Amino acid sequence: MKKSIDPGMHSAEHILNGTMDQLFNCGRCFSAHIERKKSKCDYHFTRALTPEELIQIESQVNRVIRANMKVTDTCIPMAEADKRFNLSRLPDGRSDEIRIVSIGDYDACPCIGTHVSETSELGTFRITTSDFKDGVLRIRFKLNR
Ligand SMILES: [Zn+2]
Fold first, then answer.
1. Contact 128, 140 (CB under 8 A)
2. pLDDT attached to residue 46
3. CA dist 67 to 50, 77, 114, Å?
4. What's the CA-to-centroid distance between 56 and ligand 1, angstroms?
């Protein structure tokens, strides 16, 4: 995780990942490219999303943003994290504890990045485009802040 990453965009990535996994049970994105103006996330998937589903994702993410949830972090023992989270994306050379970042009671995942402190800082979430190819669903998004 680069330190220069935009905290707002990166926090939106957390909410989008939580939403995708909740709606489609597809897990969190396996690859992400986060920039201040526009970002993209890639998911292992079996098909393209319908326009209705894209709207559903957008509205659910925006509901979380507007609910102004607090973004908090806590450190838990690695053994406990192993049971609760998929740690396969973590680099090796782990320590005994791991930092878990929570967005209200909506989403929680291990992360070392920088986040906003409240979701209302994110403005409005918009999916710009989405496409599907070779088992990979790509979602491009931006924030109107
Ligand atoms: Zn994060």
1. yes
2. 97
3. 26, 30, 20
4. 23
- Write down the residue that tokens 């930092």 correspond to: 99
Lookup: tokens for 114? 């920088």
Give me ligand 1 centre to Cα 74, in Å: 12
Give the C-alpha separation, 99 to 68, whole Å.
22
User: What residues does the ion ligand 1 have nearby, CB within 5 Å?
Assistant: 111, 113
Task: State in Å: Cα 135 to ligand 1 middle.
Answer: 25
Tell me what pLDDT residue 94 has. 63
Domains and CATH numbers, the chain: 7-144 (3.30.980.10)
Consecutive 10-residue averages of pLDDT for the chain (145 residues): 79 98 97 96 98 98 98 95 85 81 97 96 98 98 97
